[in-house]
Amino acid sequence: MSSSKVIHAFYNDDEVVLDAIKKVKAANHHIEEVFCPFPVHGLDKAMGLAPTRMAITAFMFGITGLGVAIWLTYYTMIGNWPQDIGGKPSFSWGENMPAFVPIMFELTVFFAAHLMVITFYMRSRIWPFKKAENPDPRTTDDHFLMEIPVHDNEKELTSLLKETGAVEINVVDKH
Amino acid sequence: MSHYEAPIREPLVLGHKSYHDITEDIARPIEGKANKNWYIAFYISLAAMLWGFGCIFYTIGTGIGVWGLNKNIGWAWDITNFVWWVGIGHAGTLISAVLLLFRQKWRMAINRSAEAMTIFAVFQAGLFPIIHMGRPWNGYWVLPVPNQFGSLWVNFNSPLLWDVFAISTYLSVSLVFWWTGLLPDFAMIRDRAVKPFQKKIYSLLSFGWSGRAKDWQRFEEVSLVLAGLATPLVLSVHTIVSMDFATSINPGWHSTIFPPYFVAGAIFSGFAMVQTLLGIMRKVTNLEDYITRLHVEYMNIVIILTGGIVAVAYATEFFIAWYTGSQYEDYTYLSIGAATGPYAWAFYSLLFFNILTPQLLWFKKIRRSFMWSFIISIAINIGMWFERFDIIAIVLSKGHLPSTWWRFEPTFVDVGIFIGTIGFFFVLFLLYARTFPVIAQAEVKTILKSSGESYKKLRDGKHE
Questions:
Q1: Which of A90, A114, A142, A164 could form a disulfide with A82 if both were Cys (CB 3.0 to 4.6 A apart)?
Q2: How far is B175 from chain A (nearest CA, A)?
């Protein structure tokens, strides 16, 4: 089975790995994954990753939080049991609204921040008791690891990766 | 050259470091053994904390009467400490969120500890309103939950309730911001760990972070959006704390400049606390190459700026109190009445610690000195405590009716709880310093080539 074989190419410099990704891409090879110890500027673009939509989710969760705050203040202070508190008008939500601005702001932030982070954890599959999936412990220290699937082109790939400055190249059976 | 930085900028990482050296340096305090000084500091803090807990149990068991409060002065040490601790928390968020938006690279060496300080300080702050309830088991009444008292709801018109929402949002958002940033660093410790138990713990803490390209892309965007959310959040928190006072109709509290003035004061005191903590930590964890003289100077510059805002606010308060010509304004915390009355010592302490002492930082020599920064930071911590004490106790001590004038004298319980929270804070911080990566090492690695000393020298053609 050649399809389950992958090449793990190690690099120890962020600029070298960035150039390497561009070269491997230019040679029309598919890069399965790159594991990095720290974020490298422009690496996602070089790999051809689609932009992330995390900010959009945050915006939508924020709108949700604002809606919840409006409903909560309306229901408790106007709808369910209106009271005269310090002479503040409680006839309609609009009149009482200035007093609710802090609550509306806080709940917007609360929903946007927490739900976005939960979305991030779910999408990137990180949560307590999750087992780490980086193939080599050095990738959280100072090594970058490029994973490329092999389709009967092991020799060609190895020489290409050597050229790009890989410090170590291993061929491994993934399963 | 993607890593170019102007040669005129001083390096942020000293010495001849590689990426692996950074890993080693950050992991060392966690993997090594604690020294004697750590144990001494820890046990002193622990004793203070236990004493404070004892005072808290005494308060709850006996009643709020064991404090020095009286009919007029219903808020004193408790709310002073509450505002003081919340204010201290603000620097952490400022460093990690506002400075991220401004792309300040120097924040990377200090943001982790500053945020830890935020979270631990807000814990202490949160204790005070809960104890002050007298019956803390009814604490959940501040939440809008359906209940058996008819459909009685919390009062969303009240700044005290805004505070509940602001502080709980602030604490929880700061916590996830901090933890998300910690994931790659916990993963680094996890992958180095040799002891099975340690490996297990750090695997759990790192949530299985693997560092895929897509994870990093999301990580960076999530950090940016969280910073964007945390920036107005941190400003809102102390604004709302100030509204606890400003929306009341007490002379001395009913002041429209309170929100910006409180926010500036919070950042001022928070940076002072960061200076205090990091001044010690850089030594005991041997991280002098990362937390440098330059970091200290930058923080001192923020202190001068925010201290200046606070000084202008004091002058404004003093002038306006005098300018109204109202006799009721003559015993607010910044007035001639306060300067000559029985609280004159508190009035002058405030001016001395908060206004005069920080002016020393205009001198470059002092601003760049570790020892002086440490001493001045302690002075500011004391000064900011006096600010809140003056605002609360002096203002309340003389109301509209002379027959109700009274003074506040703290009991040993007031003092004990305050000391207890300081102990609790340091217990948390000392445990943190031994078990958490105290510097955001993944982030520091991204600036090593642009701001590391050896790389800068290489680029500027000055070979060693």
A1: A90
A2: 10
Instruction: Judge whether A151 lies within some domain.
Output: yes
Residue A26: which CATH number?
3.30.70.260
Chain A nearest-CA distance from B291, in A, is: 20
- Contact by Cβ (8 Å): B60, B136: yes
Residue A153 and residue A97 share a domain: no
A39 touches chain B (CB under 8 A): yes
Q: Do B210 and A43 touch (CB under 8 A)?
A: no
CA distance B52 to A87: 41
Condensed to tens digits (0 to 9), the pLDDT of residues B48-101 reads: 999 999 999 999 999 999 999 888 888 889 999 999 999 999 888 888 899 999
B188 touches chain A (CB under 8 A): yes
Q: C-alpha dihedral over B225, B231, B237, B239, to 10 degrees?
A: -140
Q: Answer whether residue B216 is part of any domain.
A: yes
Query: B194-224: per-residue pLDDT in tens?
Result: 999 999 999 999 999 999 999 999 999 999 9
Tokens of B347: 């009035």
Region B394-414: mean pLDDT is 88
Distance CA B47, CA B43 (A): 6
A70 touching chain B per CB within 8 A:
no
Which positions in chain A touch B233 (Cβ < 8 Å)? Answer: 106, 109
Inter-chain touch A141–B191, beta carbons under 8 Å: yes
Closest in A47, A110, A127 to B207, CB measured: A127
Of chain B, the percentage scoring pLDDT greater than 70 comes to 98
**Residue B142 included in any domain:** no
Residue A131 lies in a domain: no
Q: What are the pLDDT digits (tens) for A12-66?
A: 999 999 999 999 999 888 899 999 999 998 999 999 999 999 999 999 999 999 9
Nearest CA in chain B to A56: B225
Task: Kindly report the nearest CA distance between residue A50 and chain B, in angstroms.
Answer: 9
Please indicate whether, in this complex, the C-beta atoms of A36 and B213 are within 8 angstroms of each other: yes
Q: Which of B169, B176, B203 sits opposite A117 (nearest CB)?
A: B176
- Exposed, middle or buried, B328 (CB in 10 Å: 0-12/13-18/19+)? middle
Under a CB-based contact definition with an 8 Å cutoff, are residues B201 and A21 in contact?
no
Q: Is A32 on the interface with B (CB under 8 A)?
A: no
CATH number, domain at B366?
1.20.1630.10
Backbone dihedral angles phi then psi of residue B91, each to the nearest 5 degrees: -65, -35
CA distance B269 to B242: 15
Angstroms from A71 CA to nearest CA on chain B? 12
The pTM is what?
0.92
Residue A103, in any domain of the structure: yes
Domain span including residue A165 = 5-37+142-173
Q: How far apart are CA A154 and CA A147, in angstroms?
A: 13
Q: Is residue A135 part of a domain?
A: no
Q: Is B285 strand, coil or helix?
A: coil
Assess B222–A contact: CB distance below 8 Å, yes or no.
Answer: yes
pLDDT at A1 over 70: no
If you measure CA to CA, which chain A residue comes closest to B188?
Answer: A140
**CA of A87 to nearest chain B CA: how many angstroms apart?**
11
Note down the domain range covering B120.
19-133+155-446
- Which DSSP category does A9 fall into? E
Residue B265 to residues B85, B354, B425, Cα–Cα distance (Å): 12, 10, 20
